[in-house]
Amino acid sequence: MTSLDDRLAAVRDGGRHALVPYLMAGARPDWVRLFEAAVAGGADAIEVGLPFSDPMMDGPVVQEAALAALAAGTTLDSVCATLGSLDLGVPLIAMTYCNVIYHVGLERAAGRLREAGVLGAILPDLALEELDEWAAVCDAGDLATVLMVAPSTPVERVARLTARSRGFVYAAARMAVTGTASGLGDGVAVVERVREVSSVPVYMGIGIATPEQARDAARVADGVIVGSALVRRVLDGQSAEDLESAVRALREALDEM
Amino acid sequence: MSTMGTPGARGRFGEFGGRFVPEALMPACLELEGAFAEAWADPAFVAEFHDTLRLFGGRPTPVTPLARLSERLGLRVYAKREDLAHTGSHKINNVVGQTLLTRRMGKRRVIAETGAGQHGVATATAAARLGLECTVFMGEVDTKRQELNVFRMELLGARVVPVASGSRTLKDAVNEALREWVTCVADTHYCIGSVMGPHPFPWMVREFQRVIGDEARAQLEDLGVGVPEVVVACVGGGSNAAGVFAGFVDTPARLVGVEAAGGSAIGHGSPGVLHGMRSMLLQDEYGQIEEAQSISAGLDYPGIGPEHAHLAATGRAQYVAVGDDEVLGGLTLLSETEGIIPALETAHAVAWVARAAGRELAPGTTVLINLSGRGDKDVAQVREMLRGDA
Q: Do B22 and A57 count as a contact with CB atoms less than 8 A apart?
């Protein structure tokens, strides 16, 4: 069990549905303030986007945020240096692409993230078939490798992915990149497929944009990931207070459950 | 694996290759790997592939002895004439193979990326022949640079989607095609244009292109030349080079890939992961992908096929670079001495042979150049560049 498993199990044991906002590190000069606002609004963990020039799994909103972060000079090291000096009080999970990690070196990248207090990592372009090396490094360093299950994933793969995912399983609600459509899509069926093989927490993402959708997702899932809907607000220049209100609205919807 | 043989289940060429794609696409990659392996072992499929290339694609393309160029350079130069294939380049070989496979898999639609438009036109062509729906992603910058190719694709019944993200060129067209594929993978095949992307694409595209090398080897035998001492091809992603190298990799022939100096993934790149593969890439010190810069849109790509990265690492093939300034010289040299206007991409290979003649290539050396494409598409651009020089 990784530290992230323990932290997220505690959320579920507390009878709470996990709310995980995704925000891009470095997308705005005040990005730390935005992370704090998300926590104040009721986030249980934050998915920290580390920008990559060619984000294959992301739609236009996250792409725009990534380009803004890169233009501002954001790097793995700069984000880790900032996060390492903070205590946001909730688990952090990095989300980036293989090349950002591979270029630094797997052990060094995992070490930098963990030293900065990051407890998990999602690399959406790292297929199960290529996972071994990174998983070994992460397991040795107490960094949770969170894996995705898609609507297209056959049943036998669901079991193999679920067995190797740490912290939680990311249930992709639709066959699409991030931020291109909203609604539960195939999410309920994906969550149920994971439930059949494991009791690990399952969080739904890719299409959860509104409090109503978050609440509907939480009828089956242990948590929700909300990304582009919040990143859009950041790109539109909304204040930290506005972001906090948006996160709180999601929180309240989940707590109604 | 023997050199340029069948890669293992992980699709590795030494440390390169593999499959770095989102889980949503993995089932499709696995399905494609199984479907291609089965089709390629089925004599009926292989026969249909070769029949289509013969009856529709203009194959076999000849090997032409280049007498006046040979005299000029002091070499014995032969050209494999992919410029004479249907749609004007080697791209037709790959798209005929992939569209036949699309139909065999029961899919009704293909998507593709294109830079200058050669692969897009070829895909639209092959799709029209089989009645498949076709969507081509093309960087917005390239749709403006290559307006006529956009119209060609539309004439062929394809829909062209301008890509406005990132650098708005080939790299981003690939990103957008991959993003689209996630949404429609059940009924759509991604007809990738080069020996790149996740396994099985680099292997499959090389196998569809190896007809170039296999034909050339037999044709050079028939001409009494035998195995040439040097085989030269331009390299962007590297499909024409992979195709011609595959026919000679088990001979003593020296294999030379010619990159654009501004897109030299082997020369100036480092190992990394992009577009589903681990290969050599142009990237900055943080692993962010850099833009390639070349006068030929077909070589304007920051990566290279993973098998080329492996052939470079083992030393079986050598990769050299030619600058934009030398390319025009290669184009005009071949035009004036042989009556063949090559594509700007292809002119890189000609330019390297001209530069190396009498230096790295001793007088009398037998050289096969893969003439991957004809230059009609580039004539307007070349005119502007020559006027600019004057």
A: yes
The CATH number of residue A47's host domain is 3.20.20.70
- Do B287 and A126 lie within an 8 Å CB cutoff? no
Q: In the prediction, which pLDDT does B389 show?
A: 59
How many contacts (CB atoms, under 8 Å) link A and B? 123
Instruction: Answer yes or no: are the C-beta atoms of B255 and B298 closer than 8 Å.
Output: no
d(CA A226, CA A23): 9
Mutate to test the interface with B, among A122, A131, A174, A177 (most CBs of B within 10 A): A177
- What pLDDT shows up at residue A153? 97
Buried b (16+ CB within 10 A) or exposed e, A89-103: ebbbbbbbbbbbbbb
Interface confidence (ipTM) of the complex: 0.96
B26 contacts A153? CB cut-off 8 A:
yes
Instruction: Give residue B169's region: left, alpha or beta (phi > 0; psi -120 to 50).
Output: beta
Domains of chain B, CATH where assigned: 12-52+91-205 (3.40.50.1100), 59-89+210-389 (3.40.50.1100)
B114 DSSP β-pair partners: B138
pLDDT digits (tens, 9 = 90+) for A108-135: 999 999 999 999 999 999 999 999 999 9
What is the domain extent for residue A138? 3-255
